[in-house]
Amino acid sequence: MAEQHTGEHPRPWPARLPFFYGWVIVAITFVMGFITAGAFWATSVIAVPMRDDLGWSLSDIYLGLTMRMLIGAASIFFLGRFADLKHGARILAIIGSVVATLSLVGVAYVEEQWQFFALYGIVGGFSVAGAGFLLMSAVVPRWFFRKRGRAMAFATMGSGAAAFVLPPLFALVLEAVGWRGTWVFLGVLTGLMTSARSLVVWRQREEGGLAPDGGIEPVPAGRAAAVQHVRDHTLSEAVRTPLMWVLVFALASASLSPNGVPSTLVPMFIDKGHTTQTAALGFSIYGLFSVLARFFWGFLAERYHIRTVIISIALFSAVSMPLLIFLTGDVALLYAAFAGFGIGGLIGTNSLVWPAYFGRRHLGAIVGVSRPFETAVMASGPLLMAQSFDRTGGYTFGLWAMGISWLLCAGAMLLARPPRPVAETPPGASTTETARPQEAG
Fold first, then answer.
1. Distances (CA, A) of 15 to 7, 18, 207
2. CB-based contacts of 347, cutoff 8 Å, min separation 6
3. How far is CA 395 from the centre of its chain?
4. DSSP secondary structure code for residue 419 in this structure
5. Is 258 in contact with 318 (CB distance < 8 Å)?
6. Can you tell me the distance from the alpha carbon of 395 to that of 413, in angstroms, rounded to the nearest whole number?
7. Residues in contact with 86: Cβ distance below 8 Å, sequence separation at least 6, in sequence order
C-alpha cells in the first residue's frame, strides 16, 4: 500500500539504497570475523616466543585460548535471545568491540599466568559472542533465503582471510617489536577495524523494509532441496525434539578441529623443522584454502540440502586431519591446504543447519542454546593439541582425535533426516519470509 510508505510511515533508509542492504551485513560480519579470528591466530604465532620468555608451558598459553572460547560459549547462551531484539545485535557488536580491544592491549603487560587468563581468557571471552558468533549465526541468515549459501560463504570468509593475511604480518611485527608489541599491535588493529561498523547493524531485513535476497526470484531447476520452506519452531519446541540434539551432537563433534588445528599449525610446522616464517607461510596456505572452501561448499549448499553438504565435509576432513602425521619436509605444508579446505567448509556452512531444520524466526534463541555446546568443544581443541605435545612430545594423538571427531559428525548427520517442507509460499509474500516496507519495525 503506497500511501503507507510516506508521511507517518517513511521507508527506512536501507530500503532506499540502490543495492540490497543484506550485503552490507555480510561485509560487517566479514570484518568482525577477520579481527576476531586474528586474536586466535595471533596466539599460534606468538605462543613459542611467549613461552620461552615467560617460562610457561605451551599448555599454559593455550589454556587461555580455551578459557576465551568457554567464556564466549557461556555468553552466547545468555545473549542468544538478546540478538532477537530489535537493537540487540548492534549493542552486542559495539560492546564486544570495545572489550576485545582493551583486553588484547592489556595482554602485552602480563607477567603472571593469572593475568593472562584474566585478560585474554575471561575478559576477552566476553567479546567473542558480540563480536562475531551471534552476528554470523543469528543475523546473516535472516537476510537471505535462496542466496544463504553464498551469503554465508562471504560472511564467514573473514576468519579464513585472517589466517591468510595476518600470520606473516604477525611474524614480521614479532621480529620487529617482540611478542608484547605484537599484542599491542593486534589491539590497536582491532579498535581501528571495529570502531564504526557496529553502528549500522540491522537485526533482520524486515526492519529495513526489504524482501529476502533483495527481491523475489524463481527457484532454478535442481535447487528445490536447498531452498525448501520449513516451519518456524520456537525455542521450546526445538529443544523438545530429538532432532535438535542430534544436530547439536553432530556440529559439536566437528567443532574440535576449527580452533584446535589452525591455532597449533605454526607450532606443528616448527616441530617438523621449519622456521617461524615458513610455518607462518603454511598458516597463510591454510587461510587461502579456507577462503576458497567457503565458495565451493557454499555453492553446493545452494543446490543440495545442508545435511548432504555437512556429511561431505565431515568425510573429507576425517581423512585429511591425520595426514600431517605422515608428511615430512616441505610436503608437510600441503597439509595446511587440506585442513583449510575442510575446516573452512564447516565454518562457512554450519550456520545454515538451523534455518534449514527449524526456520529463522527464533534463530537467535535456538543458536543461543546450541552454539555453546559447539563452542565448548571448539575451546578444548587447542588445549588437546597442546597437551598432546606436552605429554607425548608430538601431535599424533591430537590429530587422530580430530579425525575421529569428524566421523562422529558424519554419523550423526546421517541420522538427522530433514523435516518435511511446509506448503511453498513465495518469500516475498510469507509472514515468516516476507519483507513489506510497511511491516518494518
1. 16, 8, 9
2. 156, 159, 160, 258, 290, 294
3. 24
4. P
5. no
6. 28
7. 203, 207, 441
In angstroms, rounded to a whole number, what is the distance separating the alpha carbons of residues 128 and 139? 15
439 vs 79: CA distance, rounded Å: 26
**Amino acid, res. 407:** L
Residue 64, pLDDT above cutoff 60: yes
Strands (E), 73-142: none
Distance CA 281, CA 396 (A): 22
Query: Of 20, 9, 70, 155, which is closest to residue 377 (Cα–Cα)?
Result: 70
Of 128, 138, 202, the closest CA to residue 351 belongs to 138
- Type of residue at 95: I
What is the rounded distance in angstroms from the CA atom of residue 43 to the CA atom of residue 57? 13
Phi-psi region of 215 (alpha: psi -120 to 50; beta: other; left: phi over 0): left
End-to-end CA distance of the chain: give it in Å, rounded.
Answer: 16
For the chain, what percent of residues have pLDDT higher than 70?
A: 73
The predicted-structure confidence for 121-154, as pLDDT tens digits, reads as follows: 888 887 765 545 555 555 666 677 667 667 777 7
